[in-house]
Amino acid sequence: MMLEIKNLHVTVGGKAILKGLNLTVEAGQVHAMMGPNGAGKSTLGNVIAGREGYEVTRGEVLFKGKNLLELEPEERACEGIFMAFQYPVEIPGVNNTYFLRAALNAQRKYRGEPELDSMQFLKLVREKLKILHISDDLLHRAVNEGFSGGEKKRNEIFQMAVLEPRLAILDETDSGLDIDALRLVAKGVNRLRSDDRAMIVITHYQRLLDHIVPDKVHVLADGKIVASGGPDLALKLEEQGYTWLEQGGIQSLEVEQRV
Amino acid sequence: MSALAQQWGESLRFAAPAQGPQWLNELRLRATNQLTAHGLPQRKDEDWKYTPLRILEKLNPAIAGNSGGVVADDGSDTGVRFENLTPALLDSPDYLINIYDGVLVGCEGPDRPGVTIVPLSEGLQRYEPLLRKHIESVDISGSAQAFAALNTASLDHGLVIHIREQADAGTILLRWALSGKAGPAIHNFRVFLLLGEGARMQLVEQFESADHSGSALNVVAHVELGTNAVLDHLRLQNESENTVLMSSTRIEQAQDSRYSYAGFDLGGGLVRHELKTVFVGSGAHAVFLGAFVLDNARHVDNHITVDHASPACSSDQFFRGVLGGRSRGVFNGKALIRPGADGSSVRQSSANLLLSPLAQIDTKPELEIYADEVEASHGATVGRLDESAIFYLRSRGLSETEAKRLLVGAFCRAVTDRLENQALAGRISELIDRAMPSFVERSKRVDA
Are B281 and B257 in contact (CB under 8 A)? Predict the structure, then answer.
């Protein structure tokens, strides 16, 4: 099992956000996490990635059988967790290539693999850029500095391609993208799908799932997963809206989809 | 506080008289009287408000022994130790000059037409009227000028670099070190950099002593740039925590001359750099770059004054400060644009990062404009490292320490990127990186 979350309770600033969340993700799967604003979708991503300020009051998160919650964010990254940020941070003065090589080598070192020199790294980077159809000008720029919304999201996917995580969390990767940029990003993500890699795609809208077709769709509401199903669940939600769900629409779902 | 000044005054009065012309002997005496009459700078001196002299008081240094004006010109038995220090910033400078315990102990370099490098005693014989003009121009009155008064009162050891018009001295590496072996002492030294019309020189100064030094150095430098002269001046200060350094550099710039200063303070106990340039001719340009990266209880003060006394000159002050531990930084950048100095351009920028709750920065950009048609901009910021940036880097696999180093390095690179010599910039960046680990402290985790 790649990821097992059991009865997860999380508070932020004393306020309960996740209230008993259960989730199991297997290698090779893509799970979509949908739900209304404030349901706790991004909190889930941040807790997995290890951001400060999220207090786990109950429950556990196991990654490849290891207790994820006792690891530092960088240790989680080295274990194979990657989060594509909803709002990638601009870091002036830190060159994108330099940063990414430092990150990759930190991860390789952790795993006992030899570090890559700049020539080897550049070769790897060129391959990835080619696969993702990204121009190499972002290599020479500072991390996300002055990037457009689309460029920032593409840079996240590019980092993911280079770091080759086992579990990637895509936090509202579709937000702020026009349809062309969305297609490009989705195409990149699809190329990175593989049998030994799992993904959790957090999104508010169904449209991203037209391009990244998930194996499973979960609906998160008020800190819990209230429904799980196949891609058709996303369509149903799109049709009916989240208010339908909140007004008891969940009862109309087939029993296997209710949680 | 003035006990120290009295003590110094007494030892100056009883010391064997230094050699030199009559006017200089009289001036030394006047300076001694000024020093004892007014004492050392106090909090009420506006220019010293943020720089208390506690570390100097605690050190309680005596005036370094007066060698009677005799300057050693070979370092044979002076016990100079430059080993175990940061390697020289320049691999093969055209000239290498060593000043050890306030004494010029060595100068190596070729005989180049138009380039004269001599000890002050010899300089006074060759260029007396010129040096006298500079020496007498120094304000020694009042407690705020106490270190200038002290330097004048004990004026003896010095260095004169004279570059004739159109001559190029190439690169000069000037290394300063203190031994502290004779107990805590304050060493006084005077430097003259005299560049004729169209003359050029690149000067790199390195201040670094053995760890145990516990001494003080008080340097006054005079820079005169003729028409079209170019001086590229870099200073790296990497002193130990029980070292006091006071430097005062006065620059006079003729028409279309260029002065580029870059100062990097990565150490020291109590350090103050005063730099003052006067544009006596039009079209001159001065740039002051600086970065300081401090930890523990270090104190570094940069006081820059640019006097736009002529039209169409430009000046640029650009400082970045990083403070950890209980360190304290001061930036005081002043630009005075006098009436009639039209077409002046002034830029000032001071940005600072506080990495510890006990670190402190006092930043004060000052603009005084009395001319029309002036282009001026200034800004000062104080902030902390961006937590979201740290998390972003950590989420990719970098440790918290590495993440902070990367961010601090990037912050300082805004300064080193502006150096023309990029090889030198690379070395400085490495030293900045090495200066960091001790203060890149782990922050407390709040989650599980």
Answer: yes
Q: How many whole angstroms separate alpha carbon B224 and alpha carbon B12?
A: 29
Among A68, A85, A91, A87, smallest CA distance to A8 is for A68
Question: Are B402 and A106 inside 8 Å of each other by CB?
Answer: yes
CA distance B347 to B404: 29
- HSE (side-chain half, CA atoms, 13 Å) at B243: 27
ipTM rounded to 2 decimals: 0.95
pLDDT tens for residues B355-414?
A: 999 999 999 999 999 999 999 999 999 999 999 999 999 999 999 999 999 999 999 999
In angstroms, rounded to a whole number, what is the distance separating the alpha carbons of residues B402 and A102?
A: 9
Q: How far is B393 from chain A (nearest CA, A)?
A: 8
Interface mutation vs chain B, best among A8, A43, A47, A52, most B CBs within 10 Å: A52
- Check CB contact under 8 Å for A85 and B392: yes
Sole residue written with tokens 């138009």: B114
Considering only CA atoms, give the Rg of chain B: 22
- Over residues A30-52, the pLDDT tens digits come to 999 999 888 999 999 999 999 99
Radius of gyration of chain A (CA): 18
Closest B-chain CA to A85: B392
User: CA A48, A54, A59: angle at the middle one, nearest 5?
Assistant: 65
Angle at A213 between CA A47 and CA A252, to 5 degrees: 80
- State the alpha helices, DSSP H only, in B61-127: 120-126
**CA separation for the pair B273, A174 (Å, rounded):** 53
H or E stretch at A207: helix A207-211
| DSSP 3-state of B80 | coil
Per-residue model confidence as pLDDT tens digits over B215-246: 999 999 999 999 999 999 999 999 999 999 99
On whether the pTM is more than 0.95, the answer is: no
Strand pairing of A224-229 and A216-221?
A: antiparallel
* Three-state secondary structure of A171-190: ECCCCCCCHHHHHHHHHHHH
Indicate the helix (H) or strand (E) that contains A246: helix A242-246
In this structure, what DSSP letter does residue B348 have?
A: E
Compute the distance between CA of residue A121 and CA of residue A105 in angstroms, rounded to an integer. 9
